[in-house]
Write a structure and sequence with these properties.
single chain, about 150 residues, mainly alpha, Four Helix Bundle (Hemerythrin (Met), subunit A), 5 helices, flat, Transmembrane ascorbate-dependent reductase CYB561, oxidoreductase activity, transmembrane
Length: about 150
């Protein structure tokens, strides 16, 4: 998608990175790549210790929520930019494009609010399965001096 945007701008003679929508979109893309690589490094490869994973998990959650908010913001800025550049003179006449764009914007905000609500509810988080408890990054391993059930050695 990023390559398609730059190629489209090049063929139409539009400058790259000229608007807030462009910068928010690029920030979202770069932070997503960083989140993806760090998540793979910390959670997929066995070389990361449990304490390091435990330290990174809250940051991973925070940046995941941040990326979600940034992506919705980028979409809303893109819709606004399209309305300003394409139909600015007829926008106040309730043209179908404006109604569709505003409806899509309201639905995006509603979707973001619903997802944000779900993410903040502790009772909606999946409880860990029994087989996951022994391997969980939230518990210290036997080699670090504590057992997974919370008792000390």
């Amino acid at each position: 998608g990023i390559i398609a945007v730059f190629e489209s701008h090049r063929t139409k003679g539009i400058p790259d990175m000229y608007s807030l929508h462009s910068w928010c979109g690029m920030a979202t893309f770069v932070l997503y790549l960083l989140q993806w690589f760090l998540g793979c490094g910390f959670f997929l490869f066995p070389s990361a210790s449990f304490s390091l994973r435990g330290w990174y998990k809250p940051q991973h959650i925070f940046f995941g929520i941040t990326l979600f908010i940034l992506s919705i913001t980028s979409c809303l800025l893109g819709i606004t930019e399209m309305l300003l550049f394409k139909i600015s003179d007829s926008y106040s006449h309730f043209v179908p494009e404006g109604i569709l764009a505003n409806t899509l914007g309201v639905l995006l905000v509603a979707f973001g609010l619903v997802v944000g609500y779900v993410l903040t509810r502790e009772e909606w988080k999946r409880p860990p399965l029994a087989e996951e408890l022994a391997l969980s990054m939230d518990f210290k391993t036997l080699t670090e001096g504590e057992s997974p059930d919370g008792g000390s050695q």
